Amino acid sequence: MKKRVEKYLKEKADKVDSVTGEEPPKTADDYQCSGNLEQDFTKLCKLMSVKDIPSVKIKQSSSTNRRVIENQMTTWSSKPCLRIQLENEDHGSVKEVKISGWRMDEVVLQVLSRILPSLSNLQCLHMWRVGLTDYTFTSMRNTVSLCSNLRKVVLEGNPLPEQSYHLLIAENSMLTDLSLRNNHIGEEGARLIGSALSTVHSPNKNLLSLNLAFNSIGDAGAIHISQGLRLNRSLLCLSLSYNQIGDNGAAHLAEVLGPFALTHEEIVERRKLLIKGEESTMLQPSLVSLADSHERPLSVRSSSSLDRLNKSTKNPTKKKDNPKKEEKPAAGQAAKKEEPKVAKKDNKVPRVQAGKLAGKDNNLLVSEQERVDVVETVIPLLDPGIVHAGGKVIHPGNTCLTSLNLSGNKMSEQSLKVFLSSLEGQGEGGLLRLSLNRNQFPSDCDTFLKIQEIMSIRDPLKKNLSGQVEDEHDEPKTTSEA
C-alpha cells in the first residue's frame, strides 16, 4: 500500500509543474512562449531533442561600455550561442538578437521561429555566417514577417543559390533597415532587389537603408538597382561599395538622381493614373477641376504641398481671411456671406491647381485626409514637377535618396561627369552624402573636385564643422581690429 502511494505521488509530481502548478507540455506544439528568450529557448530545445543546446548570453545596454558590448556581440564564437541585448533589466525586454559564426540547423531555426514572434520588443535580428540555405531562409523570412516590431535585419555572409533576398523587402514588408553584405549577390539577385524597391505598379514604402556592399553586382546589377530607384520614394541610404561597378552601371545610377525621361511603360501607367484621378474627380463634386492646365488634373499633391496643408491645419484662422480678401465688390455681400458655408459643406478635399495646393477647408474629413496622404506618397508618376520637353515626359528625378556609397568600384572620370550633371540638376532635396573614394580616377581630377565642392555645401556635418571653424577664426580677427 505504501509503495502504491509513493508511486502515485511521484507520477503526480511529474505531471504538475512545481512553479506554475500546471501540467508541463509534452511536445513543442503544446509549449506556450512566455517572452523570456533564455527560458523559452532552453525548454523548446529540450522538447525538440536538441543535443547540444546553444547558450544564451545577455548583454544589457549601457552608455559607458556600448563599444565593448558591440564588439562582444559581433565577435565570432567557437561555441554556438545566442547573444541578446535587453531594453532594460527585464528578461522579457529583448530588443536585439545576434547569431554569428556557427551553422544553425533546421531544428534550432524552428525553435527560433516559435520564440522570436513572441518578443514584443525585438527590433533587430543579426545573422552572420549561420549557414542559411534557400529552405531555411524562407522559414526565417516568414518568421521575420511575424515579428511586429522588428525593423532591422542584418543578414551577412549567407550566400543563397536562388538569391531570394528580395523577399525580405516585399511590398508588405515593415523592415526599415536591411544589410546584405558579402552574400555573393550577382546580377540576378540585384534584378530581384531592384524590382522589390519599385516597379511601375508597386514600390516599397518602408525601407530606409539598404547595404549591398562587398557583393558582385557589377554594371548589369547596378542598372537593375537604378531601375528600382526610379519610382522608389522611401529609401534614404544605399551602399553599393566594392561591387565591381564600372562607368556604365554608375552612369545609370547617376541619371536617376537628376531629371530623366519616362519610359513608354511609365507614360502609359501615368496616363492610367491621371484618367483614374479624373474619374474620381467627376464622381466627387467636392473636387474642383483644374483650369488652364496642360495636363489632366492630378489626383495627388507633392510633399511640399502636404507641408503647407499641415501648416494650414495648425493655423485655421489664416484661411478664414481668404474669403474676405477675395470679396472686392461691396454689393451683394449678404449673398456672399453664405458662400463660405457652402464651401465648408462641399469642399471636403483641398483645391488643387497645376498640382499645387491652393486652399484647404477647415472641415476636411480625417478619413479623406489619410487617403490622400497615402496615395501621394506612393505615386511618383504623378509628381507635379513632371514636364514635357522635346517630345518627352521629363521626371524631376529621385531626390529622396540622401546617401549613396560607391567606394571601391571601377568608376572613371567618365561616369563622374554624369554624377556632376545630375547633382547640378537636382532641385530641392537630393543627395547629402556621396562617397566615390577608391575608384579608378585620380583624386585631383577637376570633375571629382567639383563634386566634392557641391557635396561639402550639402553635407550637414561638414556645414556645422565649417561654421565652427569660421567662428573660431573670426574671433581673433575682430579682437585684433579692435
Number of helices: 18
Rg over alpha carbons: 29 Å
Proportion of strand residues: 5-15%
CATH class of the domain at 159-259 and 397-465: Alpha Beta
The total strand number stands at: 15
CATH architecture term of the domain at 159-259 and 397-465: Alpha-Beta Horseshoe
- In CATH, the topology of the domain at 159-259 and 397-465 is named Leucine-rich repeat, LRR (right-handed beta-alpha superhelix)
Low-confidence stretches: 15-20, 286-377, 466-482
Shape assignment: globular
Helix content: 40-55%
Spatial gap, N to C terminus? 109 Å
Structural class: alpha/beta
Q: Strands across the major sheet, in which order?
A: 1-2-3-4-5-6-7-8-14-15
- What is the CATH homology-level superfamily of the domain at 159-259 and 397-465? Ribonuclease Inhibitor
Arithmetic mean of pLDDT: 77
Q: Largest sheet, described in full?
A: 10 strands, mixed
Biased composition (Basic and acidic residues): 318-349
Organism: Cyprinus carpio (Common carp)
Biased composition (Low complexity): 299-315
Protein name: Leucine-rich repeat-containing protein 71-like isoform X1
